[in-house]
């Protein structure tokens, strides 16, 4: 939809006015000024529009031009009424002769309630946030060229679900907003989210003539729940088949990790974070991270989980032995592990690991350090990493959209929006992803995770991947990539390069040759 300047509209209207109209207006001027037209001053987002800009970039040494489209597209209910509008940013490489061979990557972030900003200007997009090589804020705030963006091999659309970015619920034809319960039923739950987004994507793909393109979904954090569910929903309800799904820092995607498994699976992450902060014994510190983590993982599976499964009936000497090993790998004291009954919580770990140094470690990325009001206590005062990220991302995305992509609005960009309470019942997204893979021999899955992520830890990600297909018949279509950073591994310069390259290779390797049929 082409935007028409308001001034042009006013000129057009004014040209149709007669002299008598002007006189009538002048005679009613006083009374008109006494009235207040609220609708003329309401802050609203355009329901259906696009703003297009042209750009150039350089990726892996190759220069090319691309088109960026920022827009909104409605969500319609079964009656054809617009009930919400979703904002998105769509990047297309120019001079592509045949987009039937050009992959389309559909990108979601998580939360739920998080905007698409993180992977747009943090990870795969043509512009990257201005941070230092480890991901910490720098001024002046803003973006720079992302020399590793996958835009060289795929077009990308970043989608903001309802109440994130500029996306909003819409009033009905009478100007009334749906109730909180009605909004939850339509948008704010595992299955409602998947259903309306699948419908929205059908429209987007149709409008942009991408039905023949190979398609990929990528989701980060809760976005992995979203894309896992979408894989089957798109196939079964929209008849849209995918080549790949990428799970970045995945949640459990409905695959249960409870009790001893949930507790024990934290240990490899504890070991990685402690190693980074040089809180382990000399023998472990002198061993490279990826060399000793397999030992921690083996202990977790073979000894730690069975010990926790014994609960209060574990023999005292065995409990002591396990506590010593957990302390050895985690950097905590044996006493702290024993007083936790071998079940060390993540919040306690973030507070305890560097307590003697007067510092806490971050939740989503434990490389980040915080300082609390008091060194006592069992959890940090705040999440050191999230405050750092909001510090740099918020001004950058607002300036980027307005100044470079030329999208102007008074609507607030919701970095983190209100989508709660979120209905988490009947979460079968992992099983749905498995079913989608079974139904579609072209569909491959890659998992990406940071070793220092304490929220969705890398070993949980591995465990989820292992459990995704118990038959092992599709394990050759599942792969895992680990990085020396946290939840948003791409903020570390070295991992920005590697994670994009892994994603690039995943896309290239899952594009079947013309004579390779989808069959078993």
UniProtKB/TrEMBL annotation:
Q: Which residues form a coiled coil?
A: none
One GO molecular-function entry:
carboxypeptidase activity
Q: Which Gene3D superfamilies match?
A: alpha/beta hydrolase (3.40.50.1820)
Q: Which domain of life is it from?
A: Bacteria
- A Pfam match is Peptidase_S10
Looking up InterPro entries in the UniProt record yields: AB_hydrolase_fold (IPR029058), Peptidase_S10 (IPR001563)
UniProt keyword Protein transport, yes or no: no
> Which controlled-vocabulary keywords does the entry list?
Carboxypeptidase, Hydrolase, Protease, Signal
From which residue to which does the signal peptide run?
Answer: 1-24
* Segments crossing the lipid bilayer: none
Protein name, as recorded: Serine carboxypeptidase
